[in-house]
């Protein structure tokens, strides 16, 4: 899964802002979502993302996996990613 | 196009939110067509106790001018064209940002009555760390200021019946809200860092009001 083409990103102190110029809308990601987005953009596999997230945010792997799933679901729902 | 008066002046309003461009090209079987989007009465929120909600343009060409300006603004590559009202006393501009009907023009009008100078009714340009005046449409200011530094940004929201709330926003929280109100975002999005820099040391307030004096109190000092 990767970011849809044509999206533009800006990093602010509160996280990433995604601008979808085709649909003319802005999506603001919080810090944890921004972290997951960066991992996704780096092309890391899901298991590695879960491991890093769990370590860096001090949560259990189950919670980390659930957060990642929620994040991916949101990205899909918003039409920001493609397979 | 539908305009209903119902004893009040309700009709077309000047600002168009990002997602609601009044003009857009659509593909049809017959080829591309220009779509003109005009809000109907039902898409407006009618607030009790407020006599004038939107000031419709008196003439059709006023509306055409709004639309044309909006189209031109979208492709402007200079500064950030922000959908906001603005006033100043010469010690820094105060910006009123909000959705249509939130009270931007009203806030500017009140400020002018209190001796502030006009800088913008529903659009201003943010460039090189400064605020630049934009022409008025419905107001007829006698005293204006062409440019000033940025002092305060007030996001205004009308919440009928609610207790007044004033929240100070961090720069990070303010940026997405500001971006949503930028007409030429397509052209300037890559310069968000510049906008962030402009907000350094600037007061950013979110004012939810049910009585307009609360906006005056929280923003015009």
The backbone outline of chain A, from C-alpha atoms, is globular
The CATH top-level class label of the domain at 78-219 in chain B: Alpha Beta
Beta-strand percent range of chain B: 25-35%
**CATH homology superfamily of chain A:** Coenzyme PQQ synthesis protein D (PqqD)
User: For the residues shown, what is the average pLDDT of chain A?
Assistant: 90
Low-confidence stretches of chain B: 1-21, 37-57
Named CATH architecture of chain A = Orthogonal Bundle
Give the N-terminus to C-terminus distance of chain B in angstroms: 41 Å
CATH topology (level 3) name of the domain at 78-219 in chain B? Phosphoenolpyruvate Carboxykinase, domain 3
**Structural class assignment of chain A:** alpha+beta
Question: Approximately how much helix is present in the residues of chain A?
Answer: 40-55%
Helix content of chain B: 10-25%
Structural class, from helix and strand content of chain B?
Answer: alpha+beta
Element-level helix/strand string of chain A: EEEEHHHE
Strand order of the largest sheet of chain A: 2-3-4
Number of helices of chain A: 3
The CATH class designation of chain A is Mainly Alpha
Q: Point out poorly predicted stretches of chain A.
A: none
Gyration radius of chain A (Cα, Å) is 13 Å
Description:
The complex is a heterodimer of chains A (83) and B (221). Chain A is built from three helices and five strands. Chain A is an alpha+beta fold. Chain A has a single domain (2-82), classed as Orthogonal Bundle (Arc Repressor Mutant, subunit A). Chain A has a three-stranded antiparallel β-sheet, covered by helices on one side. In chain A, a hairpin with a 2-residue loop joins strand 2 (7-12) and strand 3 (15-20). In chain A, helix 2 packs across helix 3 (61-77). The mean pLDDT of chain A is 90. Chain B is an alpha+beta fold and 221 residues long. Chain B has a domain at 78-219: Phosphoenolpyruvate Carboxykinase, domain 3. Chain B has six helices and eleven strands. Chain B has helices at 60-74, 104-113, 171-179, 185-188, 192-198, 213-219, and strands spanning 23-28, 31-36, 80-82, 84-88, 93-97, 117-120, 124-127, 130-132, 147-158, 165-168, 203-209. In chain B, the strands form two sheets. In chain B, strands 3, 4, 5, 6, 7, 8, 9, 10 and 11 form a nine-stranded mixed β-sheet that branches. A two-stranded antiparallel ribbon of chain B has the order 1-2. In chain B, a hairpin with a 2-residue loop joins strand 7 (124-127) and strand 8. Chain A binds chain B through residues 8, 10, 12-15, 17, 19, 21, 23-26, 28, and chain B through 18-19, 21, 170-173, 175-176, 179-180, 185-186, 189-190, 192-193, 196.
